[in-house]
Write a structure and sequence with these properties.
Layout (H helix, E strand, L loop, with lengths): L9 H10 L2 H8 L2 E3 L1 H9 L6 H12 L2 E3 L4 H14 L3 H12 L3 E3 L3 H9 L3 E3 L4 H7 L5 H12 L6 H12 L6
Parallel strand pairs: 1-2, 3-4
């Protein structure tokens, strides 16, 4: 199943902004959907003079990022996830959106990824978007490598994880 228009946590959108790669990420996933708590954390509570905040605002204007309004049922589920698992409001809203919709999400927070598994949500870290784009033939080998390296700069990534992701990207799935 291809990941499209997934809800994304604040870390994901900030990493994408710091790497300045919204158009490439959108080629792989469509728009990143941000629930209210994620928008608050990544934009409203941040210094609007920072380049990453300006990039998020520009990405919203270009349709690469979309804000989501949460129906009451999703808000209730989010509150339950937050209480039950001790996650932050943003991660809880992302997971509630995924449970209530496509069962897909972009989450970088380790605890949120563990809960996503428990909830049956297909999830990826931001740096894994390059692998997804390559696997679906949406990025060339060079584009996928460039995206991975750009996203890895703001993301804390162990060398072994980086090498594993590079190997996945280099697998010849599309005859290049």
């Amino acid at each position: 199943m291809r990941l499209t228009d997934p809800p994304a946590d604040a870390t994901s959108v900030v990493y994408t902004a710091k790497a300045d790669r919204f158009p490439t990420v959108a080629r792989c996933l469509g728009a990143l959907i941000l629930p209210p708590a994620v928008w608050e954390e990544a934009v409203d509570a941040a210094d609007h003079g920072r380049p990453d905040v300006q990039r998020i605002l520009a990405a919203e204007g270009s349709g690469f990022v979309r804000r989501a309004l949460l129906p009451e049922s999703v808000r209730s589920l989010s509150d339950e996830i937050e209480r039950s698992f001790g996650l932050g409001a943003g991660e809880s809203q992302v997971l509630a959106m995924a449970v209530s919709g496509s069962r897909q999400a972009i989450v970088d927070d380790r605890a949120a990824r563990r809960i996503a598994v428990r909830l049956g949500i297909i999830h990826f870290r931001t740096v894994e978007i390059a692998v997804v784009g390559r696997a679906y033939g949406l990025l060339s080998l060079a584009e996928a490598q460039e995206l991975l390296h750009a996203l890895a700069i703001p993301a804390p990534l162990k060398a072994a994880d980086m090498l594993a992701l590079e190997r996945l990207i280099e697998e010849d799935r599309h005859g290049e």
